[in-house]
């Protein structure tokens, strides 16, 4: 699989948060309020992301302007059934085969690492998945990220043990790894890709899933997937 890095096209001034924005004309359900949410709260300076990162008919994938973005056009999105594993070739993965049940992803910050196959399905529904290395991101840094997700539709966050950067953001076919949770590219990624109907396979799919246990989700498995795992696909 070939992933291409793209260069930043436009500098963006820091002013106020744009994380509550969604794509015009694409409705989303009300955020989930129960389950795994962050208890740490701090006052966080937010940034304003300009119109260059607003999706539209003439700007279908604004994320191409984000420095360091990784993009892959995943065609495979077949389902597997729990406990079947997928042999992902990316960590964290950002497309390909996934579990038939999606992780609840309306403003949920999971305190424990979640089974990857469920999280990839949330990307298929238009969510942005923020992951972080729990050995590197704690305290106020963790609260900075949680503030991007708490109460926001099509947004989900979880620790990802062994992550090779402090922070990684995923949407379907897109990934951005960062060293600093306050980097303005976090907001650029969210505005460009959360529920962007031009970049994910199932516009209109819900992020609500009452059958998914937000307080005790299926756990992340750090072991090698084994010879019986399904390939991620391309």
Fold and architecture overview:
Mean pLDDT is 86; it is low at 6-35 and 37-46. A 7-stranded mixed beta sheet has the order 1-2-10-9-7-8-6. The protein has a two-stranded parallel sheet with strand order 3-5. The chain is globular. The chain has one domain (36-41, 69-234). The protein has 3 helices and 11 strands. The protein has 234 residues and is α/β, with parallel strands linked by helices. The N and C termini lie close together (7 Å). 12% of the residues lie in helices and 16% in strands.
What are its keywords?
DUF3105, two-stranded parallel ribbon, 234 residues, single chain, signal, 7-stranded mixed sheet, alpha/beta
- The number of distinct structural domains comes to 1
Ends distance: 7 Å
The largest β sheet comes out as: 7 strands, mixed
Helix proportion of residues, in percent? Answer: 10-25%
Task: Tell me the total number of β-strands.
Answer: 11
Along the chain, the helix and strand elements come as EEEEEEHEHEEEHE
Total helical elements: 3
- Let me know the average pLDDT: 86
Q: By helix and strand content, what is the structural category?
A: alpha/beta
Show the helix and strand layout.
Layout: E1 4-6, E2 69-71, E3 79-80, E4 86-87, E5 98-99, E6 106-109, H1 116-124, E7 128-132, H2 139-147, E8 155-159, E9 167-171, E10 174-178, H3 185-193, E11 230-231
Keywords: Signal
Biased composition (Pro residues): 216-225
Signal peptide: 1-18
């Amino acid at each position: 699989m070939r992933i291409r890095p793209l260069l930043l096209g436009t500098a963006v001034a820091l002013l106020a948060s744009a994380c509550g924005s969604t794509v015009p004309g694409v409705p989303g359900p009300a955020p989930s309020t129960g389950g795994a949410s962050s208890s740490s709260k701090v006052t966080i300076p937010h940034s304003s992301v300009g119109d260059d990162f607003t999706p539209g008919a003439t700007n279908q994938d604004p994320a191409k302007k984000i420095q360091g973005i990784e993009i892959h056009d995943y065609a495979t999105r077949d389902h597997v059934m729990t406990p079947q594993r997928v042999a992902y070739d990316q960590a964290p993965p950002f497309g390909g085969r996934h579990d038939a049940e999606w992780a609840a992803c309306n403003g949920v910050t999971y305190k424990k690492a979640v089974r990857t196959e469920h999280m990839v399905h949330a990307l298929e529904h238009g969510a942005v998945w923020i992951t972080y290395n729990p050995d590197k991101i704690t305290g106020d840094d963790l609260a900075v990220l949680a503030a991007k997700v708490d109460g926001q539709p099509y947004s989900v966050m979880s620790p990802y043990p062994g992550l090779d950067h402090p922070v990684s953001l995923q949407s379907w076919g897109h990934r951005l790894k960062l060293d600093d949770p306050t980097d303005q590219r976090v907001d650029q990624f969210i505005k460009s890709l959360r529920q962007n109907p031009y970049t994910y396979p199932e516009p209109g799919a819900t992020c609500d899933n009452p059958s998914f246990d937000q307080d005790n989700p299926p756990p992340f498995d750090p072991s090698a997937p084994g010879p019986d795992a399904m390939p991620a696909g391309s």
